[in-house]
Design goal:
Rossmann fold; 3 domains; 6-stranded parallel sheet; globular; 13 helices; 6-stranded antiparallel sheet; Elongation Factor Tu (Ef-tu), domain 3; binds flavin mononucleotide; alpha/beta
């Protein structure tokens, strides 16, 4: 190695020049984000499936030598659409016929009628892949709304809208055929998303006394990966299992990686004929303890940690405890004040479910715990939204302007809780918190 300072200075100058020129070449170019001959892929996804299909679409087009770029629908405007040769929108529907969180800004700007004006997109060719599930009344309604908006703006459909019921393979095959017609080829590297074997290492029935009282079972299930080390994940992420019929079912991961494994809280589900739900049936009964199932961890950004360091209100009912538990633990470790509102059915039956949270409260690790039991004698039962309404002023004072809220549970409970929060905090608090990343909900 040379010790001559002249050599070192010359080498340094060359390195600096190289850094400067490559930074200049790689700089983001304003207004040229979507080159004119590119296919623009827009995703609107709540739990990640539309996002994965968008990534698959991108990979296939690139592999076929096509020029393609991908962005969130929420960040796109008419200028991006006009600048592209063709636009492929992959959009799911969530809530009760609602747009995924990442597309809310787009809805507010273009679909809610506030702006009024429909842009001229007559030079744009497009296709929509609408993800949904026929068990919801508003089937694929967000994908339909996007399709209608593009049509009204004069854009020309490359293909009629493809609607996908619960990821039905035959509908996804139509999309792949369309991509093939656009010059895509099967990506040589298979998606790195494939399922792995996971072993159920423990299963606890948390409310066995509920069996005689017609209360559906709640189970705590611990799982370990069968091959390789425990993967990493964040509070708020999902555990997706693949069923023998090829469907996927998502569960909130109720633990953190440093606890050494994945923990799920699974509610028993039965249809009118008494048949178990496909995913919960596997986890609760069909796969024995020490048995294996196919699953993977999935990133779920909409329910990652709420922004800021202010006080954190966590609200959950039943198996929704899984969603808030890792956030509670992280907040306690970080010294962030936590107020937890938990809903369950009966204190006698559900004692095991709430004992951990009760322990946090007893040890002074959380600022406050409110329990709402829905099935108390003499009509004294109440739900989490009643607990919020009962102490709305205290809640508003505690949260202040920089508090955050995270909510996990069933869809109907979510709507009632949001109404109660609007009542307690004043119209606009939730919207402002949502816009600032201080309100996250995971409703199913
Ligand atoms: C809480 C929740 C609400 C949903 N609401 C609807 C709905 O109103 N209409 C519909 O067609 N599908 C609905 N779905 C089904 C999703 O659109 C479908 O599972 C989709 O594949 C999810 O895609 P994503 O992971 O990209 O969000 C809902 C799913 C969940 C979990």
């Amino acid at each position: 190695m040379t010790t001559d300072p002249v050599h070192w200075i010359a080498a340094g100058a060359i390195l600096l020049l190289w850094l400067l020129t490559s930074t200049w070449w790689l700089r983001p170019r304003r207004g040229a984000a979507v080159p004119g001959d590119a296919t623009l892929i827009l995703h609107a996804s709540q739990t990640g499936q539309a996002l994965e299909l968008a990534q698959m679409t991108l990979r296939r087009l690139l592999e076929g030598g096509q020029h393609a770029v991908m962005m969130s629908l929420g960040q796109a405007g008419p200028e991006h659409l006009r600048a592209s040769e063709q636009v492929l929108v992959i959009a799911s529907t969530t809530g009760v016929g609602e747009a995924p969180d990442e597309a809310r800004a787009f809805v507010a700007r273009h679909l809610s009628g506030k702006d009024g004006e429909t842009p001229d997109l007559s030079g744009v060719r497009y296709a929509v892949l609408a993800l949904g599930d026929r068990k919801y009344a508003d089937y694929c309604s967000f994908g339909r709304a996007i399709d209608d908006w593009l049509g009204a703006a004069g854009a020309k459909a490359l293909h009629e809208r493809i609607e996908v019921d619960d990821l039905a393979p035959e509908s996804l095959a139509l999309w792949v055929r369309l991509l093939d017609a656009l010059g895509a080829v099967e990506a040589s590297a298979p998606p790195a998303t494939l399922y792995h074997p996971w072993r159920i290492v423990a299963r606890e029935h948390l409310n066995p006394a509920g069996d005689e009282k017609d209360v559906p079972g709640l189970y705590r299930i611990a799982l370990q990966p069968e091959d390789g080390a425990l993967p990493d994940w964040q509070a708020g992420d999902l555990f997706e299992i693949s069923t023998p019929t090829g469907h996927r079912r998502d569960y909130s991961v109720g633990s953190l990686p440093d606890e050494g494994g994945v923990t799920l809280y699974v509610r028993e589900v039965r249809d009118e004929q008494g048949r178990r739900g496909e995913g919960s049936g596997l986890l609760i009964e069909a796969v024995p303890v020490e048995g294996l199932l196919s699953a993977r961890l999935r990133d779920h950004a909409p329910f990652h940690r709420a922004a800021g360091d202010g006080p954190l209100l966590l609200i959950a009912a039943g198996s929704g405890f899984a969603g808030v538990r890792p956030h509670a633990i992280e907040a306690m470790r970080a010294g962030r004040p936590v107020w937890l509102i938990l809903g369950e059915r009966r204190p006698d039956i559900d004692a095991r479910t709430i004992e951990e949270a009760q322990g946090w409260a007893d040890a002074g690790r959380i600022a406050r715990l409110d329990l709402a039991f829905s099935r108390l004698p003499d009509g004294r039962g109440r739900y989490v939204q009643h607990a919020i309404a009962a102490d709305g002023a205290a809640l508003a004072a505690w949260l202040g302007a920089d508090g955050a809220i995270m909510l996990c549970g069933g869809l109907a409970m979510g709507k009632s809780v949001e109404a109660a929060l609007d009542g307690a905090l004043g119209d606009g608090w939730l919207d402002a918190a949502r816009a600032a990343g201080r309100y996250h909900s995971d409703l199913y």
